[in-house]
Amino acid sequence: MQHFFVNLPLRYIAKDRRYLDQFIERRLAPELGLDTIIMACVDDHWHRDIAARLKSVGLPCAVHLPFFDLQPGSLDDFILDATRRRFESTKKIVDIYAPAHLVAHAGYSGLYVEFYDAWLSRARETWAGFMDTWQGHPPLFLENVNEKSPKPLQDLYAGLAGHNTGICFDTGHWQSFSGGNKAGTVREWVMQLKGSIRHLHLHDNDGSSDQHMGLGQGAFPWNDFFASLAEYSLLPTITLEPHTPLDVEQSLKFMSQHPEWFA
């Protein structure tokens, strides 16, 4: 079996079971997207059925936690409470799948520039509380989205020592939302996060938007990125995040062309 994951929103499977069939046929391990849409339209029995199908063929999975409208470091007590209750509601479903890892958005944005310390304190409390009450939880990897520098991720991770967490570096988000390629900062990000990067979300874009292209189809600096990982002897796990079947194929081809990076 191939030792990486490929993103697969659970709502896609609910719409058409053939998505799951294709992953099983190709032996692609899914990182299952768990969002508020799927949580509102299926029950635990449905999740058990999907989990049993994966288990029956020996295919591992991972789970991406919800992020629509959620703010784990919100300064608004009502929104913060709703966010924490939403995360709490995922635990029973996640346990059904017994995933190899969890991914969640770290949630920092420019909204909190003037209130950074308050955001950081509340975000740490959210994630620590989420894990403290969940014995044996899978590793949780916090993902960059709108962060303009690695500092919020660094500081959030540092405050969660002992909680089996890490950083998920998302190449497409770094390129599109952080403007990283224009600034030429991929080596800086890897250097500053070298002690915490445990997982990668790999997809590409041209820098204008979060296009989720296949690897090598956009402008992401793959050579510099993998050279930086090698410099610090980092061997994070991987999820491919292309959004179309063609982009999946292009990503798999890219991986086969660069065994030195993906072996």
- Strand-residue fraction? 5-15%
Structural class computed from helices and strand pairing: alpha/beta
Q: What is the C-alpha radius of gyration, as a whole number of Å?
A: 18 Å
Q: Provide the low-confidence segments as ranges.
A: none
Total domain count: 1
Q: Which percent bin holds the helix content? A: 40-55%
Shape: globular
- Using the 3D structure, state the CATH architecture: Alpha-Beta Barrel
Q: How far apart are the first and last residues' alpha carbons, in Å? A: 13 Å
Overview features:
TIM Barrel; alpha/beta; 8 strands; eight-stranded parallel barrel; globular; 47% helix; 263 residues; 13 helices
How do the strands and helices of this protein lay out in sequence?
Layout: E1 5-9, H1 10-15, H2 18-26, E2 29-33, H3 36-41, H4 44-56, E3 62-64, H5 77-97, E4 102-105, H6 116-132, E5 140-143, H7 151-158, E6 165-170, H8 171-176, H9 180-183, H10 186-192, E7 197-202, H11 222-231, E8 237-240, H12 245-257, H13 259-262
Parallel strand pairs: 1-2, 1-8, 2-3, 3-4, 4-5, 5-6, 6-7, 7-8
Helix pairs in contact: 10-11
Description:
The chain has an eight-stranded parallel barrel. It has a single domain (5-262), classed as Divalent-metal-dependent TIM barrel enzymes (TIM Barrel), CATH 3.20.20. β7, α11 and β8 form a beta-alpha-beta unit. The two termini are 13 Å apart. α10 packs parallel to α11 (222-231). The longest helix has 21 residues, at 77-97. It has helices at residues 10-15, 18-26, 36-41, 44-56, 77-97, 116-132, 151-158, 171-176, 180-183, 186-192, 222-231, 245-257, 259-262, and strands at residues 5-9, 29-33, 62-64, 102-105, 140-143, 165-170, 197-202, 237-240. It contains 13 helices and eight strands. By secondary structure, it is of the alpha/beta class.
